[in-house]
Amino acid sequence: MYPDSGKVRIFKDAQMQTLRHAIIIANTKTRHHQFYHSEVSIGSRKKYTGNGMLDYTEREGIKETINFSHILVDSSGQTIADGMVPDTVYFNLSPEFQFRGM
Length: 102
Prior knowledge:
- Helices cover 0% and strands 52% of the residues.
- The protein has one domain.
- The chain contains no helices and seven strands.
- It is elongated.
- The strands form two sheets. Strands 1-2-3-4-5 form a five-stranded antiparallel β-sheet, with no helix packed on it.
């Protein structure tokens, strides 16, 4: 988790200020999933919720942006996210396949 300013404000009872425009790296080994422009409320090291954007790059190098409305940590400690591709967007999984929905 990287706040946009590099600073985090901690309030009474260890409550953290909601991060805005933060970066969330969901896989720390490969750094493959990087959410950006994220708004995140942090409860603890393995407990946070928020929303943000993620770029999907298909094999030809074309980037498609997905807006994730829910990013959170599940009971196993893994980051999971729900996003939707609107019907009006032509989202390419590859040159042969398009996708829309959830």
